[in-house]
Amino acid sequence: MSSTTPPRSHSSQRTLSNLIFLSRWLQAPLYLGLILAQGVYVYHFFLELWHLVSGATSLDEKTIMLTVLGLIDVVMIANLLIMVIVGGYETFVSRLNLDGHPDQPEWLSHVNAGVLKVKLATALIGISSIHLLKTFIELGSKGVADNSVLWQVVVHMTFVLSALLLAWTDRISTKTASEARSAH
Asked: Does residue 118 contact residue 128 with C-beta atoms inside 8 Å?
């Protein structure tokens, strides 16, 4: 007499596999936390914008430039947060089902872990560039460079090198996967 129930080890393996697959939902609260963090950046942006507008007649050009660079920095960090929230959720948790939505980001249609890493690395380079520019502008008034400027340049170049290596690695893995598919 044959039994239709699967062997116990197969059932345990399926249960473990389902549990592991469901564990991806543990990341959802992290993305919600990043949404709250973005709210803090929006508040900070408008606070700095208000200071800029209210002091427009009394601020010197350098202060205006540094404030505007600070606003750009906040926007770039907000863009980074969106990439992590939307791209990470789509890649690691669940599909967003935005096909055909008029506001679907163009990059979301072909996002994967490799593409997301490269996008994040290039966003970090942009943020680092803004910080470096602010430092150079502030340095002009100080007249003397200290070790922190050197370290900022080193960190910035590390970001640039890392982004290049990530892009190169992603290109190699994409090319290898494409060649493997065409071989079959």
From this structure: no
Integer CA distances (angstroms), 103 to 72, 108, 153, in order: 23, 11, 37
Largest alpha-carbon pair distance within the chain? 92
Which pTM was predicted?
0.72
Cα–Cα distance, 104 to 84 (Å, whole number): 15
Please list the ranges in the chain whose pLDDT falls under 50.
none
% pLDDT > 90, the chain: 33
pLDDT of residue 2: 54
CA separation for the pair 167, 77 (Å, rounded): 21
Spatial distance between the Cα atoms of 27 and 178, rounded to a whole number of angstroms: 30
Q: What are the residue ranges spanned by the domains of the chain?
A: 24-177
